[in-house]
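Hi F.,

I've been meaning to write this up properly since the lab meeting, where we talked about keeping a consistent format for the predictions we share between groups. The idea is simple: the sequence comes first, exactly as it goes in, then the structure tokens exactly as they come out, then a line or two of notes. No screenshots and no reformatting. I'm using this chain as the first example so we have something concrete to point to.
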Amino acid sequence: MSPPADLKEVVDSEIRHILSRNADEHQAALELRDAVLRWRRDGAFIAVPLFRVNTDPTGLHPVGSYENWCPSESFASVYSYLCLNRGNLSVLVHPLTREEMGPSFPLDLTTLRVLADEIPLQCPSLSYSSDAPILSLEDRRKIGVNIERILKGEKEAAKAPSD
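Output, unedited:
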């Protein structure tokens, strides 16, 4: 499953480490990373995948991985995008500390529906409650160009594809 290639689709659908265990997952992780870089460039959200991609266990990560950084203002959008487009990859989200949110538990996914065309609202009566302005696609593209300009000198930040 390839990540979507349409800015509107990403914006409308609204981390840290992407983990891979074998060559196929490594390739899928690189494709997802390139997609995140394109969406950053196009202004869908701010996310900075680091240029380094580990093919083997590194540090506390038991398998190959790469790191994404995003500011809190973009976290929900980046997290949602990765959840919807990760395919068979695992995404490890944690703060830059030793703290965790408790031990992992196996989940019973049989109680959840398969990804649907329309995501139901949890609390429809609340609707959309943010005071943040809704950005046009053109505004988002301008933001993306500015972010790329700012990150141009950052040696740790991966560069967005030029396509």
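Notes:
The helical segments are 7-13, 23-41, 72-85, 137-151.
The first helix runs from residue 7 to 13.

If this format works for you, I'll send the rest the same way.

G.
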